[in-house]
Each structure stands twice: as C-alpha cells, then as structure tokens.
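Example 454, ligand flavin mononucleotide.
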Amino acid sequence: MGPLDVWDLSPLLSLWMNRFYIYMGCALGLTLCICVQIIKKQVTRSQEKRVPGAPDSSLSPQKKQTHVSGVKIFYGSQTGTAKGFAVVLAKAVTSLDLPVAIINLKEYDPDDSLIGEITSKTVCAFLVATYTDGCPTESAEWFCKWLEESANDFRFGKTYLKGLRYAVFGLGDSAYRSHFNKVSTNVDKWLWMLGAQRVLTRGEGDCNAVQSKHGSIEADFTAWKTKFISRLQALQRGEKKACGGNCKRGKCESAQHGPGEARPHPQGELHPGDAEEEEPCESSSEDELGTQDYQSLTSVVDVEDLGNIMNPVKREKREKSHQDGKAAMQRNPEKTEDGEGRAMITPALREALTKQGYQLIGSHSGVKLCRWTKVFIGFIQILFLFSATYLFLSIYFVCAHMCGGQSTAYRIWFSLWALGTKLSFSVTAATWMAPVWFSAVLLWYTSHAVRGSR
Ligand SMILES: Cc1cc2nc3c(=O)[nH]c(=O)nc-3n(C[C@H](O)[C@H](O)[C@H](O)COP(=O)(O)O)c2cc1C
C-alpha cells in the first residue's frame, strides 16, 4: 500500500480538474475587488474635499451660490491655550450656521490635504503658539517644516495655494522679544508666499498682560475672533474684499486708512502690536506684489536671465545654511568641530517623519510605502516562507526516502510534499492568466499614478 492510498485526495483532484475555472474566478474576483477599491477611494476623496456636513453644491441653484462651505480651525498647542481658543472659535462659527472642524496640526498632512481646502471653499483658521527660540510646538513642527520648505521651493510656485482662504492668530509672550509670535508670523508669511489668500490680518495674542494690547491673551483673542466672525459673514455674502479691493503692494489705499499706517509686509515682518492695528484686509502674494511684479515672477523666464534670478536665491540659501550650521555648532559643538557633516535629519524631524510613516534611509532620505506596496511585499514574504518550507520538506523527504523510512511521519511529510508539488504546479498554471493579472496590475498602477500626479 503506497503512502498516497492512506489519504483521500479526490476533492483535491476535482479542484485540479476545474483549476481553470478557479483561476478565472480568482482573477475576475481580484479585478472586481480592485475596481471597487478604486471607486470607493474616489468617492471618499471627493467627500473629504468637502467639509463634513457641508451642503452639496450640486443640489440646487441657490446652494451653488455658497461662498463658504465651512471653516477648519487648525491649532498648534502645547499647554492647551490654542486648543481652548479653537473650541471657542468653533462655537462662534457654528452660530453662523457653518460646518466647522477642529484639527490638531499634529494629525494633519498638508502634503495630502491642504490643496483640497481650496476646492472645498473652506476658510482655514490657524491658531499657533510660539515656543523657545521662536520654534513651533511639537505638534505643529511638521506642518511648519512642510510649509517653509514648500514656500522656498520654486517647484511649488507662487500659486500653489491660490484660492486657499486663511487667517492666522498667534499665541505668544512679548517677554520673548525677538521671538515674539514668530511662528504665527512665519505661517502667515509662508501661506502668503504660496499664493493663499489672507482673509484677515494676523492676530497676536500676548501672555504678557502688561504689554498685551487688550489686557490679556484671552482679550486679544476675543478681539480677533470678533473680526474673524464678521469677516466670515462678509465672505458668506460673497464680498471678496473687506477694503474695497484697493490693496496693492501691501498698502491698503481704501478711504478707511490714512497714509503711513502700518501694513502687513508680504514677508510678514510685522512688529509686535502692528498686527492688531490693521483693518481686515484680504490679500494674497499676487495682489500685493501687483500684477506686473507678479507676472514677472511667474511668467516664462529667458534662460539667460535664469542665472540672475537664481543667484540671489542661491546666495540666500547659502547664507541660511551657513546660519543653520552655526546654530548646529552651538547646539552640538563636538560633532561639527570634528568636521563631520551636519545631519540633514534632525532628531525632531526624524520623529515627525517616522510618525508620518516614512522609513528613513541613511542621513538624508526617506521613503513612504503605499499600502498596496506593503501588501505586495507581505505577499512576497509569505510566498518566500512557503517556498522555504517546501524546500526543507523536499530535503527531508529525499533524506527519509534514502534512509528507506516508511514511518507515519514519513507518510505525512510525503503527502504534504505531494500537495506542495501540486500547488506549485497550480501557481505555474496561474501564470497562464497573465493577461488578466497584467490588466489588474495596470488598473491599480494607473489609479495610483493619478493620485500621485495631482
Ligand atoms: C518655555 C516657553 C517658551 C516660550 N517661548 C516663547 C517665544 O519664544 N516666543 C513667544 O512669543 N512666546 C513664547 N512662549 C509663550 C507661549 O507661546 C504662550 O504661553 C502660549 O500661550 C502657549 O500656548 P499653548 O498653551 O497653546 O501651548 C513660551 C512659553 C514657554 C512656556
């Protein structure tokens, strides 16, 4: 009696006989699964672009006139003040019958989502605190890093965030003099540099009650909040400019202002107290630079002029990296004095990137694998595990056979080995379905390429 006689393999045999139908079914199932996934993703993405609960603009002609679909309040807080302000602001916004979302900057990926705020007609409010040396809170670190890099990266261009409406309120302490409210100043500046539209002049909250414009940081915030709400109402009515649209080169020429009043500089160089002097003024880099300057910035550049344009940029970058180097030297003298290159990934950035799901490679690069690639790698790993097991089984079987072993263990191993052989044949046969697999993979890849190309 042969070892195979012990086992009833008829169900497996019938499976083998009908293998082509099985392959066909599997391939069809997989293709359908991928299609459903793609459709689901598209639907979710289009829903994400709308603020939750926002009216569907396609429903009626009246709703098509929606100027503000909702408000997103982003906060970067360490001890909770900014978060508390976000809740208060959200309550005030709700009274305007507008959907509102409060978002911790820690949980927000600007790379994926910020551009979506433009199409969704959202107004974004940023409430950000400043900490030691003018640094952002840990939760806002990645957001600020991304914003700074994008604003200074010529590939993003001056219109990357064109149409994004935003307002910034900063939390700080004027006792920190030169670093007072630095984060809010920078966030305001970087958003502006990327072409976003400032709907209200930046507000500054000062913990230093003596210096605070309204007597306390809470009062500073309340004053800014009142302006923000009335600006929102105006935006809801479809009013584009609060100051009659005469803003040019950072100076508002409307009748409300006398000449010589302090204005927000495009670079955001406001001095403590300046911000609150402003009337709400909608502006973007395009507005403030003036059409001609703006066109010269964005239009096609003669290759010969490119050097002239890039030289100051390069010089600025060199100076910046020189300053950064100096700062690093102060922070970590042993390292730089040794002549060792400054690490491009700081510990904080490393942590932020790891949290974002990046795998860091070496000192200055990282990758983020998409879910499907991870699934694919997992699949390959399982396949490898099976192959290795099968190989060991084969070795064992050959050895046992050579030793003439006919024990129960031998018979079990033999059956497993025989099953493995059948399976491996099945896998080979499955490749006959290559065209179907290929189209499924192509479908998957195209959907990813579309997602990636924005
Ligand atoms: C250790 C420490 C450092 C700070 N550094 C600055 C600073 O450099 N510039 C500034 O404007 N405010 C600074 N502040 C003030 C905070 O920004 C202010 O307290 C703010 O309200 C904190 O907001 P939060 O509670 O949302 O974190 C600092 C506060 C602390 C406790």
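Summary: The pocket of flavin mononucleotide is lined by residues 77-82, 129-132, 134, 137, 171-173, 176, 179-181, 207, 217 (CB under 6 Å).
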